[in-house]
Amino acid sequence: MKNLVKFGFAALLSAAFITAKAQNSNMENSTLWEVSGNGLTESSYLAGTFHAMCSQDFEIKPKVMKALEKSDQFVMEINYTDPAEMTAMQKMYQTDKKLSDQLTPEEAKELDKVLADYGTDLKKMDHSSSQGLYALVSLKALPCPQTEIKLYEIELLKNALKSKKKVYGLEKVEDQMASINKAYDLKAVIGQLKIGKEYEVLLKEMIAAFKKEDVQSVYTSFRNDKIMNAQQEKAMLTDRNRNWAEKMPEIMKKESSFFAVGSAHLMGENGIVKLLRSKGYTVKPVSSL
């Protein structure tokens, strides 16, 4: 379970903080969507998640649990139950190439000073990957001790395993790592560490929106210009959404499926909802089940 918790934090990195222009308030909003039509014999469901939050804010809506119960298989961004994937995830945080060897003496000194704000230093983090550094941003942004952090996908996974559902992933750890590396090199991650306070404010806004099922606002907050530029958005959202939307029809065709992905992946011109609709599926928000 410790490995699963560690993975949950990595998932938070891959889909958590990014802000755009305001969306229309009358647009569709829900954390749960039903996918039907286009030859499907049974409906599948698409749930927008919030990877990690403090226990005081944590809740999975009853309709989400009912949709999971009705589905034959549970599909996550990455299959947490695959031992090979967990091994790859552990390697994601460490590297043989020291951070200090990738920086000038001046840059190393500056990073050491920045890391002090996160309760650590360069000596302790020197063998961390850039993803390992980015994890510090996410952890600090959550206003509670690690022992009080709840991982949304892990809770869904527990229920799926309890009812002996099949579990699959939409991408591999190496795919996620490639996306993160394409979006944020070491210098970019250090830049994110420097504006850590902005993440705290942004995360608070996103959690408030998610609790109200306002996924439009979550999507908006996920595309903050200070945190994500157009190239980073393409790597972290657009490309991954398109890859997932290509895989989902075959998965749904076999059995009714419950897909759980970060809420920011649902909305927008390149969001999964619109991509599935463009393939001929009926995708509608679910208010209750």
TrEMBL record:
Keyword match Lyase: no
Pfam families assigned to the protein according to its UniProt record, in alphabetical order: TraB_PrgY_gumN
Keywords associated with the record: Signal
Superkingdom field: Bacteria
Signal peptide bounds: 1-22
Parts forming coiled coils: none
Protein name: Polysaccharide biosynthesis protein GumN
Organism annotation: Chryseobacterium luteum
